[in-house]
């Protein structure tokens, strides 16, 4: 993926990330990192930017909306609000002579360490806890939905990707973004179903979406909700 800038008539240049693929059409996506463009290998840069210019008003509108909805940088401190499976969690931070294992009870996550003012250390400990919990939760969902789909449970790995919530490669390995653990269960199930469907169809054809719908009937609603949750899910790292 390469970085480019699209000059527009008012003198401003819109930055965008370009990824060329073996595809027939140009795809545009507004991500936490800005505009992402997926373009066919055969299209020239000049032709591509001519097409992007025709979409400039839409791009600017979407980028502006993203900025307006952007959540402020998370502050890792006592009393901060976290999320798990769509439910709020209060972060409790206290001073202790040693760094202790995190303690969780419904609605509360407690961190004890010698330097409670060090946000980097708090973030590291909490994110590691999230990743451990996510691995356990996602593994259970993958096992259940794999059985429902009638496929062997695939190997699962955690991802920290900024632009993707999940992936499934040609070796049948599934990667899921640990930040998803913050989202409501039906959204997590949708992402799991999406990646498992790739075990049968490594594309996004009508047949693929029929498979997704078979194991996640409300996938269209969940897909829309995931987009709405996206910025918030990225808040903690």
Secondary-structure element series = EEEEHHEEEEHEEEHHH
How confident is the prediction overall: mean pLDDT? Answer: 91
CATH class of the largest domain: Alpha Beta
What is the CATH homologous superfamily assignment of the largest domain? Answer: Metalloproteases ("zincins"), catalytic domain
Distance N terminus to C terminus? 22 Å
Query: What is the beta-strand fraction?
Result: 25-35%
CATH topology of the largest domain: Zincin-like
Instruction: Summarize the main sheet.
Output: 4 strands, mixed
Radius of gyration: 20 Å
Tally of individual helices: 6
Kindly state the percentage of residues in helix: 25-40%
Structural class by secondary-structure content:
alpha/beta
Total domain modules = 2
Descriptive notes:
Helices cover 39% and strands 25% of the residues. By secondary structure, the chain is α/β, with parallel strands linked by helices. It has 2 domains: 2-69, no CATH class; 81-236, Zincin-like (2-Layer Sandwich), CATH 3.30.2010.10. Strands 1-2-4-3 form a 4-stranded mixed sheet. A 4-stranded mixed sheet has the order 5-6-8-7, covered by helices on one side. Strand 1 and strand 2 (13-21) form a beta hairpin. The longest helix has 31 residues, at 119-149. The model has no long low-confidence stretch (mean pLDDT 91).
């Amino acid at each position: 993926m390469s970085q480019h800038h699209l000059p527009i008539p008012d003198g401003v240049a819109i930055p965008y990330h370009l990824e060329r693929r073996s595809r027939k059409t140009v795809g545009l996506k507004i991500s936490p990192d800005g505009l992402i463009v997926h373009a066919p290998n055969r299209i020239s840069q000049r032709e591509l930017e001519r097409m992007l210019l025709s979409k400039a008003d839409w791009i600017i509108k979407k980028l502006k909306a993203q900025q307006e909805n952007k959540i402020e940088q998370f502050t890792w401190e006592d009393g901060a609000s976290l999320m798990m499976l769509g439910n709020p969690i209060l972060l409790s931070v206290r001073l202790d002579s040693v760094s202790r294992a995190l303690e969780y009870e419904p609605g509360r996550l407690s961190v004890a360490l010698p330097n409670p003012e060090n946000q980097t250390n708090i973030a590291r400990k909490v994110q590691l806890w999230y990743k451990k919990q996510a691995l356990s939760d996602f593994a259970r969902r993958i096992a259940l939905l794999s059985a429902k789909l009638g496929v062997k449970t695939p190997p699962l790995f955690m991802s920290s990707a900024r632009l993707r919530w999940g992936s499934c490669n040609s070796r049948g390995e599934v990667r899921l973004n640990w930040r998803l653990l913050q989202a409501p269960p039906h959204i997590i199930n949708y992402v799991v179903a999406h990646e498992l469907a790739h075990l049968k169809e490594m594309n996004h054809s009508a047949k693929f979406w029929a498979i997704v719908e078979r194991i996640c009937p409300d996938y269209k609603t969940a897909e829309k909700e995931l987009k709405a949750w996206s910025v918030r899910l990225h808040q903690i790292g």
